Amino acid sequence: VKRSPLQPLVLLPTSLSEVTGPLFGYDILKANDFDLTRQHGGDPIGERIVVSGRVLDANARPVANTLVEIWQANSAGRYPHPSDQHNAPTDPNFTGCGRTMTDAEGRYRFVTIKPGEYPWRNHYNAWRPAHIHFSLFGPAFATRLVTQMYFPGDPLLDYDPMYASIPSESARRRLISAFDWETTIPEQALGYKFDIILRGRDETPMDNYLPGA
Amino acid sequence: MSLSTTASQTIGPFLHIGLNWLITDNLVGPGVSGDKVTFEGRVLDGDGKPVSDAIIEIWQANAHGRYAHPEDTQDKPLEPGFKGFRTSAHR
Questions:
Q1: How close is the nearest chain A Cα to the Cα of B69, in Å?
Q2: Mutate which of B1, B2, B4, B9 to disrupt the A interface (most A C-beta within 10 Å)?
Q3: Annotation says A192 is catalytic
Q4: Which H or E run contains A198?
């Protein structure tokens, strides 16, 4: 069954349902929601990192006051989830879930530990590269984005079918964070920068639709 | 200036770690007007098999047709008890 369009896409006028979307306020956040290393009694095992960046729209305008959610494996590559049967240790001091709001300039910042790679049994010797899951709402229901952030220099990226599922090499590379000297905290944590560009509110939502890619 | 959008990636099997906190099956807060309705259904994959760990997100206007969002400038009443958004899940 052929599923790709044979003719150019037609831009349909958007309705109020698409140009509006759920709004969340700071009132729904708890103080340590942005710091995944401070959500339990002790320090999680692993390398502390700072992950920060900006959320922008395709016209480079900041997306302010929008909810950014992340979830990730612990440093051993294990999720505290009943479906995760990997025989790596869980960490009682790490849940791996964070949330924050962007500021007026679209900036967000998380403190966490570097997630471990893990096997996922999709095929022989299948390993996921280290990654952090991101979920964003943006200003409208049409801007909803769920994606994953990767780390620079990860040798597993070339073997990962999920990373490879994005046809454009430049679009794949944009999912790789960059080491960032400016946000690195001396004697404390390395900084990684990951900017996120949300689609315009007038675009037709399509899975992996990559304008300009 | 035009930037290329960030590509989406699969939500993965462990989505509930990050996203369960917004889950509820009731959008109707106190003092909300309109007829209360319930709706339900099943989520199936392409082979017709049930998807047991799906999260459903819905977004809607209130009973007056007004969305709780600044882009909606219609002259219709807003109701503080109705945000119009929730996720729902059955496992």
A1: 6
A2: B9
A3: no
A4: strand A196-198
- Which one of B4, B13, B53 has the shortest CB-CB distance to A171? B4
Q: Amino acid identity of A88?
A: A
* CA-atom Rg of chain B in angstroms: 17
Residue A76 CA to residue A116 CA, distance in Å, equals 5
Please compute the mean of the pLDDT values over residues A145-159 and round it to a whole number.
97
Quote the CA–CA distance of A72 and A80 in Å, as a whole number.
Answer: 10
A80 CA: distance to closest CA in chain B (Å):
8
Element (H, E) at A153: none
CA distance A66 to A14: 21
What's the pTM? Answer: 0.90
Per-residue pLDDT at A26: 83
A165-193 tens-digit pLDDT: 999 999 999 999 999 999 999 999 999 99
pLDDT at residue number A212: 46
Answer yes or no: are the C-beta atoms of A61 and A27 closer than 8 Å. no
**CA distance, residue B55 to nearest chain A CA (Å):** 13
* Other beta carbons within 10 Å of A210: 18
Which residue carries 């692993």 as its tokens?
A46
Please give the Cα distance from A178 to A191 (Å, whole number). 8
Please report where in the chains the tokens 């946000």 appear, as a residue.
Answer: A183
ipTM computed for the complex: 0.90
pLDDT reported for residue B90: 65
Chain B residue nearest residue A69, CA to CA: B18
Number of C-beta neighbours around residue A81 at 10 A: 18
Output the six-digit token pair for A138: 């943006």
Active-site option among A128, A150, A192, A201: A128
Tokens of A12: 């349909």
SS3 content of chain B, % helix, strand, coil (to 5): 10, 15, 75
